[in-house]
Amino acid sequence: MQQAEQQRNNRYHEALIDFLYQMADDELTIGHRGSEWLGVAPDLEEDIAFSSISQDEVGHATFYFELLSELGEGDPDQLAFARTANQRKNARLLERPNHDWAYTIARGYFYDVFDHLRLQELLQSNYIPLQKGVQKILREERYHLLHMETWFERLAKAQGEAKERLEKAITAIWTDLPDLFSLGQSGEILREEGIFPISESTLYDKWAQQVKALFDHSGLTWPAKQNETLENGRLGVHSSDLQDLLNVMTEVYRSDLTATW
Amino acid sequence: MERQIQNQHYEVYEVFVQRDALSHHVHVGSVVAPSAELALQVARENFLRREKAVNIWVVKQENVHATSYEDQDFFANQVLSKSYREVSGYAENARKWKAFKQVAITVDDLVNDIKEH
């Protein structure tokens, strides 16, 4: 009896930790990519706005890393900077380089719609520390989503070069989409345990419904659904882009592992 | 060339921030943005990263109508003495009123007063 309960607790604990890594790594990775626009965004105001948004994303990652730390995973800074590429569980889409502004906006919009849905579902989570933090995070994410959506629609309706670049970006992003909706090895358990109450396919359907509405509204063609691939970032399988990102992101951290920053 | 492209898509918006429900909107600066919607969003990120506020206005700069710096007569309201419009113009009142109240009333004054009515 006691052993069965212990096993159940372990199951809950492991799934929760796996899921928190997915969220933390998603936010840190997109936040870092966003920060690369500092100084080179299309205009000065957007430069500051985009950096501010990216800083918020890193702040959300910090929150998730702190939850992991409370669950016995170790120092949040180490979790953020010392883990190798194959220990990371972010979706592969988020590790890709920024390419151009159209790619950045399209990826940002697709991710923010997804993240917003994920956060809304987490309002029902039975893991209260996460559920409470998400209430606060949602208040910021609404504006991130609004910002990406405004830009996305603007580029789509602009015609000419803006639309061409956006369509090219959408094609490139589409092949990287599948693992964004993957919950890795713990999807079923997350739902059964009440940590995250929605299935991967329902999450995708909700996402597609919302994004397709803007495609229709902006005169964009909805691409065919991408088949799932074996390359799943949620399982630690990443492209070399993540290693490139880590080399830059952890450069200062690695220069002196004992320093207190 | 690049500047020209910018001008086609961007406009200057003046930004006004209201710090709390009882305050006026106060001008804090301007942003360049391609639409009013984006102007509101970048104004939020540019001016309110740390400060609290309850509301933002953005107004296209071209919709702001202003007086001229050259026509200084427009502001020439100090050519003649306007002390009667200022608090300082009435600084003597308290002293004068006090002096008036302090004039002693004599019996003759009372008699005259009764006679007059």
Q: What distance lies between the first and last C-alpha atoms of chain A, to the nearest angstrom?
A: 47 Å
The assigned CATH architecture of chain A is Up-down Bundle
| CATH 4th-level superfamily of chain A | Ferritin, core subunit, four-helix bundle
Number of extended strands of chain A: 0
Along the chain, the helix and strand elements of chain B come as HEEHEHH
Q: Which range does the strand content of chain A fall in?
A: under 5%
CATH topology of chain A: Ferritin
CATH architecture of the largest domain in chain B: Roll
Spatial order of the strands forming the largest sheet of chain B: 2-1-3
The helix count of chain B comes to: 4
CATH class of chain A: Mainly Alpha
End-to-end separation of chain B in angstroms reads 91 Å
Low-confidence stretches of chain B: none
Highest-level CATH class of the largest domain in chain B: Alpha Beta
Q: What is the beta-strand fraction of chain B?
A: 15-25%
What structural category arises from helix and sheet content of chain A?
mainly alpha
Main beta-sheet annotation of chain A: none
Q: Largest inter-chain interface?
A: A-B, 14 and 15 residues
Q: Globular, elongated, flat, extended or rod-shaped: what is the shape of chain B?
A: elongated
Overall mean pLDDT score of chain B? 85
GO cellular component, one term (chain A): cytosol
Pfam family, one (chain A): PaaA_PaaC
Protein name (chain A): Phenylacetate-CoA oxygenase subunit PaaI
InterPro entries (chain A): Aromatic_CoA_ox/epox (IPR052703), Ferritin-like (IPR012347), Ferritin-like_SF (IPR009078), PaaA_PaaC (IPR007814), PaaC (IPR011882)
